[in-house]
């Protein structure tokens, strides 16, 4: 895996691109907001990941500024290297450097790109970044209890169930459980090695509005 270093105007220097074999994660740009607004119109996927509403243009602008101004968050677009197509989003949030723990989120919104291994590669890139570059010890995620596909996915990556927030998620007029999962740095290295991927071919395009 290769990191391309770049400067973030709000939070200082940080890697802005994580490059894998078939996908790369690049920093969120204003030109990406049209994708986020379109993706969040998918009510079914929103329900599976715990998003409660779609996103207006004003909402998306506020989200971009929040991402750029939040030192406890690093947000990326998931891009297929072969055609430079954005297929989802990924990020670290609630990063607590004192406790060496952070939450993670990876969503492949484009349904036609499911079951191709892109989500797995994106997660491994981000976990490697969190553990090896940012020196976190623990990475956690919350999963909607009825999202069995996501529960299988994160378990396959190596995440372990920590607990359940009973009726922690209200959706479609009903209460649902929210499953808490995590993976530790030694568990990740044991399962995936010290470097989860090796870059090959061309990387992410840098074209587009900032």
Could you explain the architecture of this structure?
Mean pLDDT is about 90; it is low at about 5-15 and about 195-200. With about 210 residues, this protein is of the alpha+beta class. The protein has helices spanning about 35-40, 45-50, 55-70, 120-135, 150-155, 185-190; strands at about 1-10, 10-20, 25, 75-80, 85-95, 100-110, 140-145, 160-170, 175-185. It has a domain at about 1-140: Aminopeptidase. The protein has six helices and nine strands, in the order βββαααβββαβαββα. The protein is about 30% helix and about 35% strand. β4 and β5 (about 85-95) form a beta hairpin. The chain has a nine-stranded mixed β-sheet with strand order 1-2-3-4-5-6-7-9-8, sandwiched between helices. The longest helix has 16 residues, at about 120-135.
Element-by-element helix/strand order: EEEHHHEEEHEHEEH
CATH architecture name of the domain at 2-138: 3-Layer(aba) Sandwich
Shape: globular
For this structure, what is the CATH homologous superfamily of the domain at 2-138? Gcn5-related N-acetyltransferase (GNAT)
> Which value, in Å, is the CA radius of gyration?
16 Å
């Amino acid at each position: 895996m290769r990191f391309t270093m770049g400067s973030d105007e709000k939070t200082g220097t940080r890697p802005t691109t994580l490059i894998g074999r078939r996908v790369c994660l690049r920093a969120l740009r204003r030109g990406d907001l049209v994708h986020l607004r379109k993706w969040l119109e998918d009510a079914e996927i929103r329900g599976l990941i715990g998003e409660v509403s779609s996103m207006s243009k004003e909402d998306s602008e506020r989200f971009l500024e929040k991402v750029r101004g939040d030192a406890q968050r690093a947000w990326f677009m998931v891009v297929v290297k072969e055609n430079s197509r954005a297929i989802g989003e990924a990020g670290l949030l609630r990063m607590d450097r004192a406790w060496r723990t952070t939450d993670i989120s990876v969503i492949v919104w484009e349904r036609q790109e499911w079951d191709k291994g892109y989500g797995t590669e994106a997660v491994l890139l981000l976990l490697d970044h969190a553990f090896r570059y940012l020196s976190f010890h623990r990475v956690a995620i919350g999963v909607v209890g009825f999202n069995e596909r996501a529960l299988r996915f994160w378990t396959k990556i190596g995440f372990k169930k920590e607990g359940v927030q009973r009726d922690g998620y209200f959706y479609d007029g009903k209460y649902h459980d929210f499953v808490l999962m995590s993976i530790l740095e030694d568990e990740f290295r044991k399962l995936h090695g010290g470097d989860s991927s090796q870059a090959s071919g061309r990387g992410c395009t840098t074209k587009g509005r900032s």
